[in-house]
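Bug #77: duplicate submission created two jobs. Keeping one. Sequence:
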Amino acid sequence: MGFLNGNNVKAECSAVFVFKRYKIYCLAKQTELNTVRNLDRTDKRILSELQRDGRMTNVELAKRVNLSPTPCLDRVRRLERDAVIQGYRAVLDPDKLAMGLLVFVEIVLDRTTNDVFDRFAERVRALPEVVECQMVAGGFDYLMKLRFADMKSYRAFLGKELATLPGVSQTHTYIAMEEVKRSDQLPIL
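Kept job's structure:
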């Protein structure tokens, strides 16, 4: 079990005791939790710049955020170590890779138990056509984002894979007619 204490420290607890009002004592090791509240303006500028161009050199990044190269690299390494920066990747053009059909699918499960959630998630993670899958609150259980070459490819996937996922009772498909905005950049500043 984990919680945040008043010093923004995450405590992993095996036993929690409530004593008086609002006081919680935990017998466990405490570890520093890295959150946006710990990031200063320079860290945020570094993150913003790296989101726009993750291939720039450290020297170029340092110039853009008004630091010398060594402290800039130290900050980037800390952000990587603290998993604020989780990786670097290329952004690909789906049309040029014959994956221009963008499909969203609402999924309703026949029952919502941990076992069904776990089996569903395990299978979904193994499907390369699924670009994203989110568990949601509301009138359905999951929202999937998928990419295909064409409608024929999606139809084959629907019958062979999607309909056979554990616990699926209903699906509703939406085909994107136009991609108005596509970005995975977070609004940092």
